[in-house]
Amino acid sequence: xxxxxxxxxxxxxxxxxxxxxxxxxxxxxxxxxxxxxxxxxxxxxxxxxxxxxxxxxxxxxxxxxxxxxxxxxxxxxxxxxxxxxxxxxxxxxxxxxxxxxxxxxxxxxxxxxxxxxxxxxxxxxxxxxxxxxxxxxxxxxxxxxxxxxxxxxxxxxxxxxxxxxxxxxxxxxxxxxxxxxxxxxxxxxxxxxxxxxxxxxxxxxxxxxxxxxxxxxxxxxxxxxxxxxxxxxxxxxxxxxxxxxxxxxxxxxxxxxxx
Length: 259
What we know:
The protein has 259 residues and is α/β, with parallel strands linked by helices. Helices cover 40% and strands 16% of the residues. It contains 11 helices and 10 strands. Helix 3 (110-117) packs across helix 4 (144-151), helix 4 (144-151) packs antiparallel against helix 5 and helix 8 (203-216) runs antiparallel to helix 10. The radius of gyration is 19 Å and the shape is globular. The two termini are 34 Å apart.
């Protein structure tokens, strides 16, 4: 299968396993990605997701150009329904658990759009990022144009979008696009450290935080504060909210039940 999923100890690991094409996604792989995201959303035991690519050359290089329908125009592609964006994650609004992008190499085109849809990004030093579609006469339609301008400074966003250029991990870090840069041999340890820190938090609290962050950015602070989002209500009324206070008083680590 082009995409692999493993779930253990509350961690779902999604790996794009097409290294022979730099982990580019064809139609079958995109369909499988959507199925996997739905499976993760339905599994209450999952508290964090790690998304990565197989091998050490690429995270994902976007759409597999070998499988593009030669009769499909850009307008035809744009007209197709892709509410969740590239890979089913770039614009996804229904996944309320944290998603870590483990960027092990090139993340360009749709691959970069998937990175923009993740919450935490850890990249190897030699990773590269870019929305290269203008260089082949296309556009970053599946999240790139709308997400990049919301995540970094205006000039930096236009500088990348209007040239299609790639940037290295160090520059991406300076732009605020990623959270951490690691050497190749330290990448997994860095990702595991972030996973451990996420799992130390109450899972319902994290769902509430992500839901508020994702769904209120267009509102004023006063309007956002007044919203009674479902994940927020669930977290405040949960057993875990009481367990956290109890564990603090008893000077022990809390045992989260996710309810």
